[in-house]
Design brief:
alpha/beta; 30% helix; 6-stranded parallel β-sheet
Length: 323
């Protein structure tokens, strides 16, 4: 089968090379999926640069989410049959013609979606649900502040929060992105490159939950933007991981600071999360309230170009490889 490998083990986008490997064989509890599309995500870039190794037992091939057809079924798998159309969360292995998946981490492709749209769902839907709704405890009527609101995660977070009856304040860089976030459903959309961002957030009422993909540069802003009892959820640190914060203000405002990664979670925990996403998020997808906005697609052999597009930061939504 065709796969994308990283020449030399790590490097720039140009290190991504088309190669051949044997098809993987599904073990007990696993399915082999004929991959038709694979989402491209920032953790793929971090792994390519040598900073995010796959967890033990996971494929060294990039790719954390796919959509395609079940092509083979391992022992003890009862839910899936050959030919079923699925999308799935992976620990790795998505940039390939075939991928082996824990059967519990696959979900049925929602009706009306094509493979490209379905491949853009799992990583973002799982991440937002785990962090905004479970980690952040977002409730109906509360306000979610999303930094990087036009990223794949941000686009999904806007839609899921609105579907749950929450209010959304979105921040992004540039007028075009601010307009896009507003069109996606944000109640307030702010251009982070102009004006006094904190003053504008406070004028909009502040936040009960912050979904933070920026990291150190926004630490002080987040602490000030949160209401008493607010929850600050960190899922990426694009401006650095080390920040200085006033712990007394954390105590006085009763702020909960938390964060997580998805890829390293145990298989059983991902299975639990998959069930929760299917129960809660899939009905929103079926109703058309939540969808994956795909900014651009690239054929598998152009994985390097897809990475360059993501690294440029100009995209709104997801980038997907098609096979």
């Amino acid at each position: 089968m065709r796969v994308i490998e990283i020449e030399g083990g790590q490097g720039p986008a140009e290190a991504l090379r088309l190669a051949e490997r044997p098809q993987p064989t599904p073990g007990p509890g696993e399915i082999r999926v004929r991959v038709r599309a694979a989402g491209v995500n920032r953790p793929d870039i971090v792994q390519r640069l040598g900073h995010y190794p796959p967890p033990p037992g996971a494929s060294d091939i990039l790719g954390l989410e796919i959509a395609g057809e079940v092509e083979a079924v391992g022992q003890d798998v009862t839910r899936w049959r050959v030919g079923d159309r699925v999308c799935a969360l992976l620990g790795g292995g998505g940039y390939a013609d075939y991928a082996v998946v824990d059967a519990r981490h696959a979900l049925p492709m929602p009706d009306g979606l094509d493979f490209t749209q379905a491949a853009a769902l799992p990583e973002t839907a799982f991440t937002v649900f785990a962090n905004v709704f479970e980690g952040g405890g977002l409730k109906t009527g509360e306000t979610l502040l999303i930094h990087g609101a036009t990223s794949g995660i941000g686009v999904m977070a806007i839609q899921m929060a609105k579907s749950a009856g929450a209010r959304v304040i979105a921040t992004s860089r540039g007028a075009a992105k601010a307009e896009a976030a507003l069109a996606l459903g944000a109640d307030v959309s702010l251009d982070a490159t102009t004006g006094d961002l904190l003053a504008e957030i406070k004028a909009a009422g502040g936040a009960d939950v912050v979904l933070d993909m920026v990291g150190a540069a926004y630490a002080e802003l987040n602490l000030n933007a949160l209401k008493p009892g607010g929850r600050w959820v960190v899922i990426a640190t694009l401006t650095g991981a080390l920040a200085q914060i006033d712990l007394m203000r954390v105590m006085l405002k009763r702020i909960m600071l938390t964060g997580s990664t998805l890829r390293s979670r145990p298989a059983d925990e991902k299975a639990r999360l998959a069930s929760a996403v299917e129960r809660t998020v899939w009905p929103w997808v079926a109703a058309g309230a939540v969808c994956a906005r795909v900014e651009a697609t690239f054929p598998l052999k152009q994985a390097a170009a897809a990475h360059r597009r993501l690294e440029a930061g100009d995209h709104i939504g997801k980038i997907v490889l098609t096979l």
